[in-house]
UniProtKB/TrEMBL annotation:
GO terms for cellular component: nucleus. It comes from Brachionus calyciflorus. This is F-box domain-containing protein. Transmembrane segments: none annotated. Residues 13-59 form the F-box domain.
Length: 572
């Protein structure tokens, strides 16, 4: 620090270019790659400083997917790649990836964005400039011109992840006996892999501790599993989803002494051939298993077999044949340390888990929202006994969890629009999209007096609307009618017409992004399912005035107070 001590007079003469190099490099580390490249154009000094290897230990190009060509990528690595570079993330253009499958884009165009990598880039540039590279993550790229041999030039490569990429069918079929030191391989939605591919992976990467073949297009069978079990003895994490593996394949996994000792994570989701027998094999042999994914395994239905997984920390049962009530009654008390994910009730066991693990808190508690009771206990050996007492308490009930609408939408109301009791309900999503309904006190819901016969939309969606921000969408103001609802009067008073219509309004200053066209064919939805399928419009409010618009509406509590004489939420 002695070299950089200045008097007040000297400090007034110091500019940003006079700051120490080590200080400027520390500042550059705070910015992402895009900003650093802009800084390199400020002056020669900054350009040289930005070539410091410590700034390029991780080269993340995911935010460049719409602005980068292959030549740009090569120049970038030539300029800034170094022996300090340990990780690189390359992402192609998402839309180009899918458009290329439809042959609607000219990849020979000079202006085409990054969509593929070639052998020259891997062998002659990346392996020379970044020869200490340990992690490569590739997304949305065409890799048809590559094979696994190209990556063998990166001798220190430990992790290779390929997601939504096009691999040629001979990617792993390389006549090369050289073994790789790779430890983790992720192949996610990147083609159809056969037994031959599994054999090549096992021969070339015998030291893998993680293998993920996700969405394998039902091409992996029991013979593939038997082969990898025999050759990959260090596996701690295995993902084989959307396959044709049967119980015999799971049995071969369980019979491996190496897997029984090392395997901590197993994902066999979307395996349609599995039955309850696989649970028996897994629970008896894989006691070390910590995470198990059984998503969309419809053949699994015996909840009692899952009670044997006493060491699990996470269990995913989404979209299986097991009823949720059985999970609540049979699994939650037996697996208190395990987080069980079975749909929107994922948080249920997490609350119980706090009682045992404490979530690194000195004290922990469980609150029953129905009884307003709390239990406090210190972290000791009696935690499990305390939890069992809670679960066995006949008065204790598991928490009632909020519905999807209650969790993600806020309810606002506008009353007496134009005429008495013309009340409207607006559900505001957390992303600011609003869905419009009639309120519970609207006259239309009096089924003894009215029967909805017809819905006629006054405002229609602009067909030229496009994009995330709904450009060219039709604008509606707060008091603009959206539709007419015609009702037959069932109980007609003297001098009253046979038919009556109600106008439903937008309630917000917004863009009209959808009208419920199902009401045209089935107008009765507005009475039968008034707060779900009976919506009449979806709006995107103008954000600059959203707070003022919400202030003009009333909350659910205020609505209940205003309509307490005619509406009770309990009765509803």
């Amino acid at each position: 620090m002695g070299d950089y001590c200045y008097t007040n007079q000297q400090l007034s003469d110091v500019g940003i270019l006079d700051l120490p190099d080590i200080f400027m490099i520390s500042v550059f580390k705070l910015f992402d790659l895009k900003d650093r490249l802009k800084f390199s154009k400020v002056c020669k000094k900054w350009n040289e400083l930005l070539k410091d290897g410590s700034l390029w230990t991780s080269i993340d190009l995911r935010n460049y997917k719409n602005d980068l060509s292959l030549n740009d990528l090569k120049n970038l690595i030539q300029l800034y790649g170094s022996e300090s570079s340990k990780q690189i993330y390359i992402c192609g253009n998402y839309s180009l990836h899918y458009t290329s499958k439809l042959n609607k884009i000219d990849f020979n165009s000079e202006n085409s964005k990054l969509h593929e990598l070639d052998s020259c880039f891997i062998k002659n540039i990346l392996s020379i400039k970044c020869f200490q590279l340990q992690t490569i993550i590739l997304e949305y790229l065409d890799l048809n011109s590559l094979n696994f041999k190209d990556f063998s030039y990166l001798q220190n490569l430990k992790i290779l992840s390929v997601k939504w990429c096009n691999l040629n069918e001979h990617f792993f079929n390389v006549e090369n006996d050289k073994k790789s030191n790779m430890e983790q391989l992720y192949l996610i939605k990147s083609g159809k892999f056969t037994l031959k591919d599994i054999q090549n992976i096992c021969h070339k990467m015998p030291y893998l501790n993680t293998l993920s073949i996700n969405q394998a297009q039902s091409s992996i069978r029991d013979d593939s599993v038997e082969f990898l079990v025999e050759h990959l003895k260090n596996l701690e994490r295995l993902e084989l989803t959307n396959t044709l593996i049967s119980d015999f394949g799971i049995k071969s996994i369980c019979e491996s002494p190496y897997f029984a000792k090392n395997l901590k994570y197993l994902n066999i989701s979307m395996s349609s051939c599995l039955t309850n027998n696989c649970l028996l094999f897994l629970s008896e042999n894989l006691s070390c298993l910590k995470s198990l994914y059984l998503t969309s395994c419809f053949g699994i239905s015996n909840v009692n077999l899952l009670q044997n997984f006493v060491n699990l920390n996470y269990l995913n049962l989404n979209n299986t044949s097991i009823e949720r009530e059985k999970i609540r009654q049979s699994l939650l008390p037996v697996l208190p340390k395990c987080e069980i994910d079975f749909g929107h009730e994922k948080m249920l066991n997490r609350k119980l888990m706090w009682t045992i693990n404490g979530s690194q808190l000195n004290k922990k508690f469980i609150m029953d929202p129905n009884l307003k009771r709390k239990w406090h206990c210190e972290e000791n050996e009696d935690d499990l006994m305390i939890l069992n007492d809670i679960l066995n308490d006949s008065e204790t009930k598991l928490a009632t969890y909020l519905s999807y609408t209650e969790r993600y939408f806020k309810r606002y109301y506008k009353l007496n629009i134009k005429y008495p009791n013309n009340d409207h309900l607006v559900l505001m999503h957390s992303n600011k999209v609003a869905v419009c309904f009639i309120a519970p006190t609207h006259p239309i819901l009096n089924k003894e007096k009215f029967k909805v016969t017809k819905v006629e939309f006054i405002q229609n969606v602009n067909e030229e609307m496009s994009g995330k921000h709904k450009h060219n969408a039709k604008n509606v103001n707060t008091m603009q009618p959206i539709c007419k609802v015609y009702c037959q009067i069932l109980k007609r008073e003297e001098n009253e017409l046979d038919e009556q219509y109600f106008l439903l309004y937008s309630c917000l200053n917004a863009k009209l992004i959808e009208t419920n066209e199902r009401l045209l064919k089935n107008p009765g939805l507005i009475q039968e399912k008034p707060f779900t399928e009976g919506f009449y419009a979806i709006l995107l409010p103008k954000l600059d005035t959203l707070n003022e618009q919400i202030a003009d509406l009333i909350t659910h509590t205020e609505y209940l107070e205003a309509r307490k004489d005619v509406y009770s939420e309990k009765d509803n």
